[in-house]
Amino acid sequence: MMLEVRGVSVSYGSREALKDVSFEVRENEVLGVIGPNGAGKTTLLKCIDGIIKPKKGKILVDGEENREIAKRISYVPQISESVPSVLVFDAVLMGRKPYMSWRPSYNDIERTWEVIDMLGIDAMRRLAELSGGERQKVIIARALAQEPEILLLDEPTSNLDIKHQVEIMDLLKKQERKTIIAMHDLNMAVRYCDRLLMLNKGRVYSCGGKEILSEESIREVYGINAKIKKDEDGIWIIPGIP
Amino acid sequence: MEEPNERRIKEVLKSNDAREQYREHIRRKVLFITACTIALMLVFLLSLMIGPSDISLSQIFDPVNHEAYTIIAHIRLPRALAAMVGGAGLSIAGVVMQSVLRNDLASPYTLGISHAASFGAALSIAVLGPELYFTPIAAFVSSLVAVFVMIALAKYKGATAETMVLTGVALGSLYTGGLTAIKYFSTDEELAAITFWQFGDLSRASWQEIAIMFLCFLFILIFFILNSWNYNAMEYGDDVAKSLGVNAERVRISGMLFSSFITAVIVSFVGIIGFIGLVVPHIVRRVLGEDALYLLPASCIAGALLLLSADTASRTLFSPIILPVGILTSFLGAPLFIYLILTGRRR
Asked: Which residue of B has its CA nearest to A121?
């Protein structure tokens, strides 16, 4: 199974959100998509999931376009304040939608319980009454119930406290699936991602290992000064130091 | 330190507990539907029994009692059936509109379809006269025009919930203006006929009309139930629905088309019955939660029950005066509308 993004361009009216974006995901790895606000991270994820149709270019899954995308790719949007007042169980069961006929089967219910047990979430609470971190876990559970080959997540840890950030990222790392995460926190990205894709104004600035994060690339893409430190624990990005 | 085995057993027990709770939750939903069904049957019998001349339970099932038979077959039974089909049809229309538009205030009444029907009926009364049986046809055609305008605009501008709600509200206001203009230029008799038509009145529907309403209702109910998980997915917004393989635009347009259609059929035959389509889905949502698979059948039964009870009350409370049921449901609906504004949740 592999995902290829080939020369994808998207525009909203006259504004070009993505310009000729190409990359591939072959291994079961975590790819972090980084770049400033408006760089096209969300648009790229929506494009891969078929929510937005690209103006030019192709998204190929195993060399084919648009094949049962809902069963192969799942999408976790940015944390939203407005959620339906459903039970956590029903919210996770929604992930089985691509497999359902007009209603969930016994198998769908069982798969849902498996995911709920695996993540250790409380199935009988209401989605709307959960805290941000707990709610995000439920939405990720929904994405996992979809049994996708590729997980797409749009800023899954924004607005979460540090404990939930680590919990969510550990959880994603543990899945050993092809995972594409749009992120703002560069230190989190370096810590948890196997590869990075840096977007700037809708174009791929660079794509590769952690070494693409340099003082120079941060200055050029984000327009700020930052210091990069390396020690035995890893790489550290300290923003705001000239 | 716990033994790993012990911990595993605890986890399994906890998860079994949650499963039992979930089954209990489903049983409660089924229980609610069953209770409403029993209540509906009781009210149905009651509605056949009470009225200006009381008929006892044994007389209902007595084949040789001609007087009771005539009253039931020609007056009370068609009226009760019209109430049940009308209440059920308006309620499922409300459930689906609220789901696909992600708007608590969406209903057949608030989105201008009823107003379009009134306009059509008034136009037909003013031009063709009040006696003709064209009135329901004109009402129906006029509401379909409103539906198609709404859907055409949505297609052109992208079928988002906002476009459809705003178009519905705008159309409602346009038709109200048209209606007022017709009334202004009408004679006294025409004005009386228009006003009378606007009051929902369940005694109006003939047996054939009830059969038409019922068939449309049945077809649309089946369509809605087959789509109930699509409506559930729409509650999370279009992006999530699409990522789950749901064609959000198509589900929204077909949902609006069919819920408007059943509304148009009902309103054309029995006139405007406000708020049932808004009140019933809300009450049922509070009790059952959001799952459309249970919400739709439960709203059918509850809607039938509510309108039949309201109609029975409206024709017996002030006997011998028979109040049009539309007046009663509007009185019922207004306080609830305000209650919704005060306790508004989500979205």
From this structure: B15
Question: Which pLDDT tens digit goes with each residue over B147-177?
Answer: 888 888 877 777 677 888 888 888 889 999 9
Query: Which residue among A80, A97, A116 places its CB closest to the CB of B245?
Result: A97
Q: Which two tokens stand for residue A159?
A: 């607005």
Residue B257 lies in a domain: yes
Has residue B239 got a pLDDT over 70?
A: yes
CB contact under 8 A, A86 and B289: yes
Min Cα distance B67 → chain A (Å) is 48
What are A104-147's pLDDT values in tens digits?
A: 999 999 999 999 998 988 999 999 889 888 999 999 999 999 99
Q: Considering only the top CATH level, what class is A3-239?
A: alpha beta
Question: Inter-chain contact A94–B25, Cβ cutoff 8 Å?
Answer: no
CA distance B282 to B333: 11
Cα gap A109→A88, rounded to integer Å: 13
Is the predicted pLDDT of residue B111 greater than 90, yes or no?
no
* Proportion of chain B above pLDDT 90, given as a percent: 38
Contact A94 B232 (CB under 8 A): yes
Report angle CA A14, A18, A20 to the nearest 5 degrees: 115
Q: B243 vs A71: CB contact, 8 Å cut-off?
A: no
Name the residue facing A70 among B232, B239, B245 (closest C-beta).
B245
What pLDDT shows up at residue B346?
46
Could you say which of A51, A89, A104 has the minimum Cβ distance to residue B242?
A: A51
B15: chain A residues, CB-CB within 8 Å: 113, 116-117
Residue B155's pLDDT is what? 77
N-term to C-term CA, chain A: 44
Alpha carbons A100 and B69: distance in angstroms, whole number: 49
Residue of B25, B229, B290 lying closest to A97 (CB–CB): B229
CATH number at B241 reads 1.10.3470.10
- Kindly list the residues from chain A whose CB atom is less than 8 angstroms away from the CB atom of residue B233: 94, 97
**Residue B16 domain flag:** no
The β-bridge partners of A228 are A237
Is B28 part of any domain?
A: no
Q: Taking residues B106-134, report their average pLDDT.
A: 83
Task: Give pLDDT tens digits for A135-181.
Answer: 999 999 999 999 999 999 999 998 889 999 999 999 999 888 999 99
Return the CA Rg of chain A: 18
Distance (Å, rounded) from C-alpha A139 to C-alpha A127?
A: 10
Number of folded domains that form chain B? 1
In a domain, B24, yes or no: no
How near does any CA of chain A get to the CA of B31, in Å? 18
Domain boundaries, position B258: 33-343
Question: Peptide bond preceding A156: is omega within 30 degrees of 0, i.e. cis?
Answer: no
Question: In the predicted model, is pLDDT for residue A230 greater than 90?
Answer: no
